[in-house]
Amino acid sequence: MTLDFEELDYQKPPLGEISLRRRAEPRLNGIILYEVKLGDKFLMSSLFTESEIQLAKLGLAELPGEELDVVVGGLGLGYTAVTVLENRSVKSLRVIDVMAPVIEWHRQGLVPLGEQLTADPRCTLVHADFFALATSTESGFNKADPSQRVHAVLLDIDHSPTHWLNPENSSFYTVVSLQSLSDKLHPGGVFGLWSNDPPADEFIQILESVFLSAKAHVVSFPNPYMGGTSSCTVYLAHKQA
Known about the structure:
- InterPro entries: SAM-dependent_MTases_sf.
- This is Spermidine synthase.
- It comes from Sedimenticola thiotaurini.
- It is a single chain.
- The chain has helices at 50-61, 79-85, 100-107, 114-119, 130-135, 175-182, 201-210; strands at 5-11, 18-25, 31-38, 41-45, 68-73, 90-97, 123-127, 150-155, 185-195, 213-223, 228-238.
- By secondary structure, it is an alpha/beta fold.
- Helix 1 (50-61) packs parallel to helix 2 (79-85).
């Protein structure tokens, strides 16, 4: 029996209606896709994952040493998190997501990478507001150890620094908030950010006001719907060692 479409879950958390669906794509020889929608808008698809993977690869590539502690903001379908765990230098990974249903999809094995993530003892899935933790002046990302610093923070929640999933997130992309995040990084640590928009010089200037250096990487990937390629941006900012 051929799978055409199946809604795996539908819930109404505070941010709005969210659904997980699995469907066959007839335009691509019937491959099975997993898609997430928030309201009537598509948030993510298992067809387009290269930029999420590159967020992890680029973010960790320049970190020296072993025993790395990493935070990922935004779980999604898990591609950034799984790529982080493929790096054997990673000692611990905390993945923070404000959407409780998304975490449950992974714990219940409703998404392809859920079992891999939840079976890895280095990985902890945390239901919390990433932005509140990142900008807190009283604690860090780990409530059990508020003073703990991490080596990398990789963020993939909003569509871009100027196109937010929740308007309240806008205050994070400022010098004051990014300085609070920087304070939670070890010297030499990295902040990485995924964006669906082209590189923005204005945001790079904000990053450079806080970090030692900042740059934008354009990540291109095939887009079979358009018959060509599409691209996203990965910003990387380095804290002074």
